[in-house]
Amino acid sequence: MAAKPAVRLPVDTPVDEELVSPREALVFGVLAVWVIRTFVPFGGTILYPFTLFGTWVHEMGHGLTGLMVGGSFDRLEIFGDASGLAYGSVAPGLPAALRAAGGLLGPPILGACILAASRGPRRAMVVLTTLAAIMLLSVPIWVRSLTGWIAIPVVALVIAAVALRGGPVVRTIFAQSIGVLLGLDTVTRIDYLFSSSATIGGEVRPSDVESIANQLGLHYLVWGSLLAALSLAFVFVGVRLAWAKPFKLRRGPGRGDEGGKVGPAAPAADRARAADRSTGR
């Protein structure tokens, strides 16, 4: 009995075809954040855990920048009013100023990286699972407050669940939404950028821009304006990269055995091998 011809899918059909483009995911992510904040009742309450997540990124920015400039990062605290503190030592002058700026620039930099990197379901899954793992790892190492002990693991588990259990569209849009939230975190707290002091954990302390001014000179409003511009610049870069068309590698001619398109231009031997496979020989 002759063998039945095997069912053969077109070799140029993508295995994991994206159901939503990176541009569509970005638009949906922006709309989701805007609608929840503007029209959904208790929208601020719904986003409150992610506001605390933004505080975690801010304080991690302080601490990790302190490590990069040769200082120490002992612990961080997150409070119920979404304020926080990062503890550590650093040399005065430029290192201390960079550490202060690191907290303000941490959210927009991470947001831009997430926007640029999570262009597609597979990339979004990698970005989200990596972020969730870092969050969970930071809890026993640095987090030292009750609010942080509760909020950060919960948000990390939500992010991990979407990454591993959410469909391709859901995790792509979710990743872009997180990128948007972080990218705009510093700008949405614009009053803090232009304040000389802030109430943190019930205690009035110098703001980050005031700390920079104390270390480097100039008025704190100058540093606030500069950091606001830098934050917006990082958001713009992230959105621009997320909006750009993805790079596609072209396969060389005559690669039919490796899944390339077999057409009239392919060598006769490649077409013959493809015909053999399709007839089950």
Percent helix: 55-70%
Order of H and E elements:
HHHEEHHHHHHEEHHH
**How are the strands of the largest sheet arranged?**
1-2
Structural class by SSE content: mainly alpha
Question: How would you describe this structure to a colleague?
Answer:
This protein is mainly alpha-helical and 281 residues long. The protein folds into two domains: 214 residues, no CATH class; 28 residues, no CATH class. It has twelve helices and four strands; from the N terminus they run H-H-H-E-E-H-H-H-H-H-H-E-E-H-H-H. The strands form two sheets. It has a two-stranded antiparallel ribbon with strand order 1-2. A two-stranded antiparallel sheet has the order 3-4. The C terminus is likely disordered.
List strands and helices in order, with pairings.
Layout: H1 22-38, H2 43-46, H3 48-68, E1 75-78, E2 84-87, H4 94-117, H5 121-141, H6 146-165, H7 168-183, H8 185-188, H9 190-193, E3 197-200, E4 203-206, H10 208-216, H11 220-243, H12 268-278
Antiparallel strand pairs: 1-2, 3-4
Helix pairs in contact: 1-7, 3-4, 3-6, 4-7, 4-10, 4-11, 5-6, 5-7, 10-11
